[in-house]
Amino acid sequence: MITSQNDTITTGVDSLLVYLKDKNQVDMKKVAKDLNTSINVVQSWTDFLVEENIIGVEYKFTNPFIYLIKKEISDETVENKNSASKSPLEPGQSQKHEYQWKYQVERTLKSKKNFFFDEARKRNLKDIPQLWEVYKKSVTDSQV
Question: Which domain holds residue 92?
């Protein structure tokens, strides 16, 4: 969804950032409802913005809550979002980023599990669940 007003183009991601500007943590389902879009679209925006260190995600039970890391939405924020250089982590942020990284790795692994098992069966490999665990461990151990 791209809209244009007075020669200014805004996207759904822009709408999300403006929406989060004056809020603390918001349930992702509520964000999707309020922005009149699907939870899958909000999730993809969130994934990108988490990678760019613009928003964060916290889980309460199994519900993801998103929040804006940088409260000022300005031209500078947009420039930072598009720039190739990354700013150093602020104090206390490394633990949050480590959690987010682990979450992304786990999510990616879940999405690849069926493919892994299918490919292992095609190759007539033995003890596929154990092979999967070895693979998972090698991926998760290499991230730290």
Answer: 88-144
As a dihedral over the C-alpha atoms of residue 97, residue 44, residue 49, residue 25, rounded to 10 degrees, the angle is -70
Is pLDDT larger for residue 26 or for residue 137?
A: 26
Is the Cβ–Cβ distance between 67 and 26 less than 8 Å?
Answer: yes
Does 74 lie in the same domain as 14? yes
Nearest CA among 143, 108, 116, 119 for reference residue 132: 116
Residues 68, 108: one domain? no
Are 58 and 28 contacting, i.e. CB atoms less than 8 angstroms apart? no
pTM: 0.46
Q: How many domains does the chain have?
A: 2
pLDDT at 93: 58
